[in-house]
Specification:
With 206 residues, the protein is mainly beta. The chain has helices at residues 51-59, 73-80, 148-155, and strands at residues 14-20, 23-29, 32-37, 40-47, 61-67, 96-98, 104-106, 110-123, 127-139, 169-173, 179-181, 201-205. Helix content is 12%, strand content 39%. A seven-stranded antiparallel sheet has the order 2-1-5-8-9-4-3. The longest helix is centred in the N-terminal third of the chain and has 9 residues, at 51-59. The chain binds fe (iii) ion.
């Protein structure tokens, strides 16, 4: 079985925003797609560990801001590499507006926003798959959307070149580029930047 085939799947990148119980937050997801056109429905799969997951589950509504190629790494860091449990991601955050449904969407580095209401949800263990009816659509720019491959090639920071290349072995996070220095990466290691597990690291020799 060629496990790397899973990396050949293409994905978009999105900021999922929602609110419930007086709390508002957003997170980065790469799992949104249109599933029916009449009526217009999309699906999103959201990791239950994300604070925003609970907000979508509770309120049954969300906005999906589609990230474009002009999105900076700061946007990914802001929405992806910190938790809404500890941080109010919209406090002092200027690049957002409220859609007709009252929820925030992201206005910079995005090319469109989909407002949707959850119709069905399926418990998938680590994730919930939400099927949602599209209630509103707003075009924000004509820029191409950022795919996950584009993020990997152009948005994620390049690892810093070593001062002197001496065949040093490090482990690099494939998601955000964080470098762990050491021959062996602990199995339970969690990336301090993006919180992805050790399985998302690759061994590289500088
Ligand atoms: Fe990382």
């Amino acid at each position: 079985m060629d496990k790397e085939v899973m990396y050949q799947l293409s994905y978009g990148l999105f900021v999922l925003t929602s609110a419930a119980g007086g709390r508002e937050s957003g997170c980065i997801i790469n799992t949104a797609c249109q599933v029916t056109s009449q009526p217009n429905r999309i699906s999103i799969a959201v990791n239950k560990a994300n604070f925003t997951h609970g907000l979508v589950k509770e309120s049954g509504q969300f906005n999906l801001s589609i990230l474009s190629q002009s999105a900076g790494f700061d946007t990914f860091r802001h929405f992806g590499f910190q938790s809404g449990r500890e941080t109010d991601k919209f406090a002092g955050y200027g690049a957002c507006r409220r859609a007709a449904n009252g929820l925030y969407y992201v206005t910079e580095g995005t090319n469109g926003v989909i407002s949707a209401r959850v119709e069905q949800s399926l418990d998938l263990g680590s994730h919930t798959l939400f099927i949602a009816g599209v209630e509103d659509l707003k075009l924000l720019s004509g820029e191409p959307s950022a795919t996950y491959a584009y993020y990997q090639a152009h948005i994620k920071p390049r690892p810093q070149a070593p001062a002197a290349s001496g065949g040093k072995t490090v482990w690099r996070c494939k998601v955000c580029g964080y470098v762990y220095e050491g021959e062996e990466l602990p199995e339970d290691f969690i990336c301090p930047l993006c919180k992805h597990p050790a399985s998302d690291f690759e061994k590289v020799t500088l």
